[in-house]
Amino acid sequence: MESTTIKEPFASDFKIDWYRTPVDRDTLAALMKRNDVRGWIQTVCHLGLFFVTGGLAYLAYLNIDGANWPWSVPLLLAALFVHGTIGPFMGLIAVHELQHRTVFRSKALNAFFEKVYAFISWSDYIWYQESHAIHHQATCHGDYDGEVPLPIRFSLRRWRFWVGILAWDPQATWQRLKLVWRHAKGEIRGDWYNHVLPESNATLRRRHRNWARTLLVGHALLALLFILSGHAFLIVVFTFGTFYCAWLGLLCGRPQHYGLNPDIADFRQNTRTFTCSWLPAFYYWNMQYHLEHHMYPAVPFYNLPKLRRAIEHDLPPASHGLVATWRELLELRRKCIADPTYRFVPECPPPRREAAQSNPEPSTA
After folding, report:
1. CB 3.0–4.6 Å: which of 121, 181, 212, 267 could bond 242 by disulfide?
2. What is the pLDDT of residues 291-326, one digit of tens each?
3. Residue 115, Cβ density class (10 Å: 0-12 exposed, 13-18 middle, ≥19 buried)
4. pLDDT digits over 63-110, tens only?
5. Which helix (H) or strand (E) holds 320?
6. CA angle 356, 17, 196 (to 5 degrees)
7. Checking DSSP bridges between strand 319-320 and strand 274-275, what pairing results, if any?
8. Which residues pair with 273 in a beta bridge?
């Protein structure tokens, strides 16, 4: 009898010969150095902003009464909007850089704050560790990378889209909680999830299940503490503080690979860099330099502007500011809708393959 081989949704046996802009070894070694001072400043200020804005929102809530009604409600909504704006960056953005182990020189510090951020944001950091490693090795290659499948599509006509990014989408929150609940029971769904968390790896699956249980039990106990202590509104501020006002996270994150090209071994063709002012850069941990990050992921986020200056002669031009970046993205979206075969090819010099091969990317481990 003739046997039939069923192709798995994603393959693991790949080795992609990536093109990376050559960098002088001494320059690259200097750029790869971790700086604990920079790491502490970013982490303390980033976490501090979340708690300070949360505290301001709570103070505004405490001031809602009959006498203060005309001004206290708008103040509360404004405080929640500002607090929620940092929410998306508390999740896989901060967790992402800490997973690369480049924020601090100490692996233990990186791992500790990774868990802190993951707990606050209900992030599935164990799945993300496995998924993101593959994403870096096989960026936007459809047979291997299930984290960022191209083309990326999104609708601007759905009311839930606008409610979710400007305020709060309760259905999205419910879906997130249900996902954590399923994971806490050890239930894994989806081809990509099962690929990066294979059933054959019982240890990894057990860690993943236990982390989901930590999220549920930990946040439930904190919510109970808030209620019993008479501060129930802290559930809105802390427990669900990363679940609303995702507008800035979307504006910063969507350009990473949008409208670019799959199955090409050149990061310049599938990853985008833009530049911006210091505040979104602070929120976003400098991931607006996303092309440079993919070329050399061992370079800490605070050195990415220097890396950009060292190699920008070999890169496509970068738009400056979110307005200019999104003007380009929306024009690209319009062209793709009008002509599904349209492909945007960034302008950049041809690869210098021989030089690039002599300068491989060091491990981030």
Report:
1. 121
2. 999 999 999 999 999 999 999 999 999 999 999 999
3. middle
4. 887 556 677 888 899 999 999 999 999 998 999 999 999 999 999 999
5. strand 319-320
6. 130
7. parallel
8. 289
- For residue 126, the number of C-alpha atoms closer than 13 Å in the C-beta half-sphere is 22
Which structure tokens are listed for 247?
A: 């507008």
Q: How far apart are CA 361 and CA 345, in angstroms?
A: 24
Task: Let me know: does 102 contact 301? Beta carbons within 8 Å.
Answer: yes
Please state, in angstroms and as integers, the Cα–Cα distance from residue 59 to each residue in 54, 72, 77, 219, 308, following that order.
9, 10, 12, 22, 42
Quickly list DSSP for 198-258.
-TT-HHHHHHHHHHHHHHHHHHHHHHHHHHHTT-TTHIIIIITTTSB--HHHHHHHGGGTT
What is the pTM (predicted TM-score) of this model? 0.92
Q: Give the bridge partners for 266, in sequence order.
A: 19
Q: Which residue has the tokens 């738009």?
A: 319
What are the pLDDT digits (tens) for 9-41?
898 889 999 999 999 999 999 999 999 999 999
